[in-house]
């Protein structure tokens, strides 16, 4: 028998490293400090050391969307509950994040001791129980189950694409397991096979329907990206030559110069040509749909189920017939192989183009219609664009996307402030590939999470922060109460953020090189600043973009109108 052993903490770190994680976000707390020692000593994993747990959860989410999985560490009770909003967002949006919680000593838990960070009732499972609704699997590590439980929850995290929770007692991270590190085998991440008969029946039904259709289209949505389906989607598109559209949550999943790409479909928020093409189709292949309100233009999709085939990870739906447990990850490749040659049609449509807006050339105001049309000129290929909940996420709906750009938004969960922490995580995830991050955040959202600018500086990122200052919660004003005081916020000197968060202080030995950091009030100032951003790729920049208070992207206005109409119809149905 080998005399080599590995501690529980290092076993967990080994698994995370082997999954591609090279940084763990979080905040120190007395119940996780021994594990943080192990992170610092591990060598190939960096400690994130965020300003608060909420931002750490956002950073882990942003990192996971680029790398495929992310991780954070918090302390018991006060720390983990500060992060639960971010973890709930990852659960809703199907992002695999590993949340490791440092818990009190095992003896104290067994005796029901009244410790700090508890509710004072001796219940040490209360917070883990709260997390059951926003995690796909949980583990409370012990001396006897640690390795098996770590493997189980990490496997579930990746196969299901949702967060998991690992409780690690402060006295267990250094406990040695009788496992030789050289004997650790890779996790089994193979997808369970679809039931054979139902799998074949689903393919037969799809092909039978396709043979009767004259105008077939494909709509790719968020779950195709979340479950790493895009290579299979591209193979399917190449085989079938079908025109393809994406939803707002899948923007960037298909390059807009792809010969079969036709645009972003979000109901009434889509351009008129896109709406016309989609509604003229007599068969829609919907891959990984997420039909939430903001992803469908306020429920203005109007897609008939009688001509829609849905591909999901948990079932396939052909019109109204459901094929349970038929996973698209296996179904689509087999459908691709069996797609009849007679259904392959040459794609003769003209290349996709976003119509340019007609702007008032006499005005030099930075309005949304100008901003979203001009911004892509300054975004290099293969960049990462993080758009905040609010005007920014709606602005990117129909924005021209440079080749290879990845878009990160939180359209379903919609927690304001998400973009700042997520941008930090995405920047650190993409640094080895020289992928630059552009984060678009509103003034109101920024006030919730501004501290993470400090981490951007400390990690020497070359982020580009574009803060859209429209003096308040514009999206809330458009929804309700435009003149109400609760939609107003304190004005800040946002462009001074680098200075406030320690740039130039001699105590901060590790810090980013700063570039442009000022307000831009005119189109000329904006374009000049962005030209500097493009040239100075090694620096971090901060543009405070001054915009009219009630100006908004057209897609936002249309979504709000669509949502109001949907609610009106619901009320009429109930009456």
From TrEMBL:
Q: Which reaction does it catalyse?
A: 2-hydroxyoctadecanoyl-CoA = heptadecanal + formyl-CoA
Instruction: Read off the SUPFAM superfamilies from this record.
Output: DHS-like NAD/FAD-binding domain, Thiamin diphosphate-binding fold (THDP-binding)
UniProt binding sites for Mg(2+): 443, 470, 472
Using the record for this protein, list the coiled-coil segments as residue ranges, or answer none. none
Thiamine pyrophosphate enzyme N-terminal TPP-binding domain span: 7-116
UniProt domain Thiamine pyrophosphate enzyme TPP-binding: residue ranges: 400-545
**One GO molecular-function entry:** magnesium ion binding
Q: Which InterPro entries match?
A: DHS-like_NAD/FAD-binding_dom, PDC/IPDC-like, THDP-binding, Thiamin_PyroP_enz_cen_dom, Thiamin_PyroP_enz_TPP-bd_dom, TPP_enzyme_TPP-bd, TPP_PDC_IPDC, TPP_PYR_PDC_IPDC-like
This chain belongs to the protein called Pyruvate decarboxylase
Organism of this sequence: Adineta steineri
